[in-house]
């Protein structure tokens, strides 16, 4: 298809037209997409479009839209199951299905927008969980060589909001992901928002599906719904700094919000942005959300230029005040 408008296919609702657009519906489409990959000037794989910001009014290449569906249990043990899920499945629906069946390990990642195949790309995480801890392997199709192969977890280069696909290996189309889930539930309750919800609401016993519902409720109360106020979730990553730099900042800003890791410290990007006065601030058609300063929102008609200018304003101010460089989490597609 030529000249496809992508506005309804990205949650930031940027009005962008793709020169060419093809769907990947099943493994029978490998030949078709290999041809597209070889013949197009450039290609971009689009899943749910919830972490993607198109910077221009036109995308001068081919969009490959992931649409393959299906899931099956490939191993069933006493205390665990391995589930193979097609990339085009909706992430939130898959997590809910797993929880309803009593399979746990992903419940704190409930209600994250997007597709299953995108989940390893930035190693999605929330409420103390990250998907990397549940992925056994990822099945990919290499559009350059036409080979299919398996990338085992240890080779995915998983890190905080990072994997081998975040900045490179763009010729690899992920078509299936295999997850290892538990049958014996060990809830992860250390996150403050979950703890206080459980205390206030006296939930007992806690089951995977109850956790899934709790996380969904907490998220709904905190994050803007992209269908009402278009956004791409957290716009910046939480920056990681050294212990030494943290000690210095802590002296100057005793209220600084941080999470300690092994030998480094992760700062709350939302707190840094809020302290610079951007919470609820608007710039042209975009702004940093009034309830969650880390989320950039589109008030209608936003362009890539608005997004980049607002992002630069925030980055410069945070750098000036705290000496910390923010890094954009969303995928910017030029
Ligand atoms: C309201 C809101 C809340 C969010 N909350 C969270 C959160 O709590 N935690 C979190 O980690 N993220 C969060 N996000 C970000 C986003 O939901 C995730 O990054 C999600 O995994 C993106 O999925 P998607 O299908 O929309 O991917 P897209 O935006 O379509 O794609 C993202 C990237 O992955 C690549 N890609 C996608 N599918 C494939 C594939 N099959 N093969 C190869 N490459 C592929 C794309 O090319 C692109 O580079 C949030 C977003 C929103 C809008």
Task: Give the topology.
Blueprint: E1 2-5, E2 17-24, H1 30-39, E3 43-46, E4 52-54, E5 58-66, E6 71-76, E7 80-86, H2 91-100, E8 125-126, E9 129-130, E10 135-142, E11 148-152, H3 164-167, E12 172-182, H4 192-201, H5 208-222, E13 231-234, E14 240-242, H6 243-252, E15 258-260, E16 264-267, H7 269-275, E17 282-283, E18 286-288, E19 295-298, H8 304-322, E20 331-333
Parallel strand pairs: 2-5, 3-5, 4-20
Antiparallel strand pairs: 1-2, 6-7, 7-12, 8-9, 10-11, 10-12, 13-19, 14-16, 15-16, 17-18, 18-19
Helix pairs in contact: 2-5
The structure holds flavin-adenine dinucleotide.
Taken as a percent bin, the fraction of beta residues is 25-35%
CATH class of the largest domain: Alpha Beta
The whole-angstrom Rg is: 20 Å
The succession of helices and strands, N to C, reads EEHEEEEEHEEEEHEHHEEHEEHEEEHE
Q: What sort of overall outline do the alpha carbons produce when their principal axes are compared?
A: globular
The largest sheet is: 5 strands, antiparallel
Kindly state the mean pLDDT as a whole number?
95
The ligands found in this model are: flavin-adenine dinucleotide
Termini Cα gap? 20 Å
Number of strands: 20
> Low-confidence runs (pLDDT<50, min 5 residues)?
none
């Amino acid at each position: 298809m030529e000249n496809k408008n992508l506005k309804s296919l990205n949650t930031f609702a940027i009005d962008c037209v793709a020169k060419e657009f093809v769907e990947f519906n099943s493994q029978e489409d490998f030949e078709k997409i290999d041809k597209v990959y070889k013949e197009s000037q450039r290609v971009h794989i689009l899943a749910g479009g919830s972490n993607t910001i198109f910077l221009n009014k036109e995308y001068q290449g081919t969009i490959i839209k992931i649409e393959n569906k299906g899931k099956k249990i490939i191993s069933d043990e006493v205390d665990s199951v391995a589930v193979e899920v097609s990339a085009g499945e909706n992430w939130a629906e898959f997590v809910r299905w797993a929880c309803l069946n009593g399979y746990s390990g992903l419940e704190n990642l409930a209600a994250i927008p997007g597709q299953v195949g995108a989940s390893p790309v930035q190693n999605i995480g929330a409420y103390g969980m990250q998907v990397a801890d549940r992925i056994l392997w990822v099945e990919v199709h290499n559009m350059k060589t036409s080979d299919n192969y398996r990338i085992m977890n240890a080779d995915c280069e998983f890190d905080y909001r990072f994997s081998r696909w975040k900045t490179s290996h763009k010729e690899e189309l992920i078509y299936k992901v295999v997850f290892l889930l538990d049958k014996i539930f060990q809830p992860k309750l250390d996150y403050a928002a979950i703890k206080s919800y459980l205390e206030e609401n006296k939930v007992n016993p806690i089951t995977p599906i109850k956790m899934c519902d709790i996380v969904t409720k907490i998220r709904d109360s905190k994050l803007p719904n992209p269908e009402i106020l278009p956004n791409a979730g957290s716009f910046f990553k939480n920056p990681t700094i050294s212990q030494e730099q943290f000690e210095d900042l802590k002296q100057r800003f005793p209220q600084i919000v941080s999470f300690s890791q092994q030998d480094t410290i992760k700062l709350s990007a939302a707190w840094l942005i809020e302290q610079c006065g951007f919470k609820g601030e608007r710039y042209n058609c975009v702004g940093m959300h009034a309830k969650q300063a880390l989320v950039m929102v589109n008030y209608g008609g936003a362009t890539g230029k608005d997004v980049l200018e607002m992002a630069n304003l925030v980055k410069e101010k945070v750098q000036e005040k705290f000496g910390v460089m923010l890094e954009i989490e969303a995928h910017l597609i030029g």
